[in-house]
Design brief:
Glutamine Phosphoribosylpyrophosphate, subunit 1, domain 1; globular
Amino acid sequence: MSGFILVPDAVLPPRWGEALCFAPQARAQAIELGAWKGYSIALGAGAHGSPAVDSVSGTQVLLVGRIYPEGAAWRRAHALGSPRGCLSNWLLERWQNDPEHFPDLLNGPAIALVWEARSSTLHVYTDRMGIFPVYANDSGPLRLASHPDVLADVLASEGRPCELDMNSLAECLATGSGVPPYTYHRGIGQLEAASHYRFAGFGPRPAMSRRVSWTPAPPPETPPPISDLAEEFAAALREAASRRDPENIGSPGLLLSGGADSRALLFSVAEPAAIKTFTFCDQTNPEARTAASLAAIAGSEHHTLLREPEHYGRGAAQTVRVTAGMWSIKDAHFCGFLPELSRPDLGNLMTGCYTDYLYKGLAYNRQAQRFFGKNLPLDDLGHFDPEFYQPHFHLAPKWDSAVQERLLERFPDAMRQTYTRHPEELEDLRLRPLSREADAMGRLFLLRTIPWDPIMADFALLPFYRRFRPEQKLNARAFRQAVLRLLPEAARRIPNNNDGAPLGASESARKLRYIAQMSLRKLARLTGWQPARHLATAGSWPDFAYYVAHSAVLQELWSAPSPGLRDLFAELLGQNPWRRPLADWAHESSDFILRLITLRIWLEQRGV
């Protein structure tokens, strides 16, 4: 299931279930969990959206999303009479036998809802990494939902409209994401990851309590050798892959690039030839050719999906609606390919999402290594700075201050002072809930439209989130070695398309290769030869600066704002952004203008 909405004191009209259906195969199903009523959203004809019920105690369990237990769980679910692909009866039995350890079963992008009749309590369990979001209003009759805009619309229909949270809009523009639990709607917040919430009693506002259900283990004081960690990580990835049994979850698919992450997934499964693989590009390029070569080695079916020139602009409105405008249409990768990715013979689409965050230190402050004043594509741990990964931009002074205040409130001073010695605590605050990370738009779209599997957050792998020390995460030191242990010899010989180097290349070799390329580029400039810029690149994604400067669709989406929108953006930026043409913005920063366009689309959809 891909979504839900629940209320404790009313019967919602069907339109609110339909509002959560974001894909052609999605259907809303009315549900009752004791006093709570609402809708769950099932994806596909074989999906199951009803809770399991114990006829004696009245306890009910509903899984929203998808989990990946070991094979014994599926066998037990079938023995309890569950239909294929459904685990609710097994979860009900486990909750009744051992509620204390129930959160340990939720291995996947999912939440569990449990109605405990004897205490008149609704239990809500959020996933460890916060991949599946849940939102609630903070006053008045309580409503819970998986989409903040739908929740805001329900409140407005009840005469409780939410004002815009201007701080959150400013954060999106300035940082490319937003500090939890805040949303674009004042009075609506996101529930915390890895939490067990209790809503006890009847009436419009049941009493709420929260208990943390999981925290990452502290890192080892003496880190094991990288070679040992790599061996263990490779074994853990094979274990995670073994839980994706097609008999229970359907035929496997994989978004395959020319990098390391997705090829690790391809060769971690027992039968790589059974996987349907997909690669995105603007034209057949080194990324697509590398992916096709890897698929050929695996014997898997491979599809190269070509973007049309206006792929991002044409998919922008739908993507913004599905994802509640979080955070940039730069990540609107999937809307145009939804028919291919939601085909009936794909039961589970794996991606390498979150690998860089969890196992390569993407959420660290990093300092590029240098060679004669030039940055190399290798990093050391840097000092704390609010800016990491995505670029930050200045707004009007008032909103700059507001953004910084929220950021620093999230990260205590003591944690900032000890950052270079203990970066893992601040890293975790930056990452969880993962549904709010800077690239969330693409992942939220997948979560709400297809049977998406972010396998890299599997419970078998998550211990390495902390077991890899910063020096082992940076430059993918441990991860690259782990991938090598998964690949057949033919796949090892294919270079990583992200840097052109073999996965087994030493850092010294990677430096020398980059320096040689840098020298060739400098020589080309000295001789007056410069390659023309194009939309297509050698990698997975287009040249966004080129796209912004040349896109007629983006020009149409950006032009002719209402006076209210012009005033709102002028307030946030301290200037009227429409006084400059898109090409100027593209030259200065395509990231910033794409955030502006995203918010402009979202605000218009919200009737601002």
